[in-house]
Please model this.
Amino acid sequence: MTGSGVSRPGATDAGDSTVRLRDVARLDREHGTPLGQRWWVTSVVVVVYIATMVAVIVLLIPVAGLDDEVERRVFGGFSVVTAAYTGLLAWLIWRNVARRVRIDRLAVTNGLVYSPREPLGGFAGTATDRPGNQMATDVVSSPSGVVDEGGDFTAATFRRGSGLHPRRAAFVQMRLDRATPHIVLLNRRSRVLGASGSRFVSGQRLRLEGDFDRTFTLLCPAGYERDALYIFTPDVMAVMLDVAPDCEIELVDGWLVAYVGRPWRLWRSRDFAAMLSLVHALGPKARSQTRRYRDDRAPIGIIGGVGRRLRMRPSAGALISLVAPVALGVVGVVSLFSP
Model:
């Protein structure tokens, strides 16, 4: 542990030790887990559901008019499938609660704070600015008022798309010492921002030096090109390729937000250490580059109106969601009055 109370990144076996029922009970008690989200409530619901299914099948089999031998085989097969299904559900329930306990252990070991769920709207970043009751999960953050070389940061997992099967992604946001213009570094290997519905108006692209342009696309507001290159220097981009080759970066509202195209698996000691390594490598570098930044177009500590946000355009999905209901309504009205 460092003097500030936050450890340096490094693997630990705290997340790999055995999880017991008392560990889960302690986690629920400390975090005030709602009754409906407790493992034993979920287990009771599953048991009642399966018992109801069994009762219905037991009542229906005699009605089918099968002979005794077929009836025994059908009931035996159903019993085997039900037992396997019950075992699978029990394993999934325990796996999920055990993962939360392991993340909490790793957070405590590293002097951090863990929260199973938090509203997504409370975080910085374009990809997390989503309508509806969206939640971030497996939230790990630096304790309030305690800052080490990694700085003030929060890591979490979130849904990056919409529809029936949205994919999950992750982010880590790190507080900067100064506010900066809204600058985005897209990554052809990740595309988290694009998949989350963030579309930026063309013409805001700024070419990077060397081979960095093959992987990354730098976007900045008009008139802030020199500012963007002042922050994203070749040595910063070299750090990006070293510790975050599959990340997208957004500077917004005094935060650096690094998006990862896959969910964090913070219950694994190795993945937890990798997240901390990203924070400790990228955070200090970003703060060093922005510590003396100021927008000459505005008072100290304030970003000019044009620089606060990149210009956005609606995605194709958003346009379709708006146009389709209107088109259907027009077709319906026309059909009512047509001869």
User: Anything to note?
Assistant: Residues 112-317 form one domain. The radius of gyration is 26 Å. The chain has two domains: 13-108, 112-317.
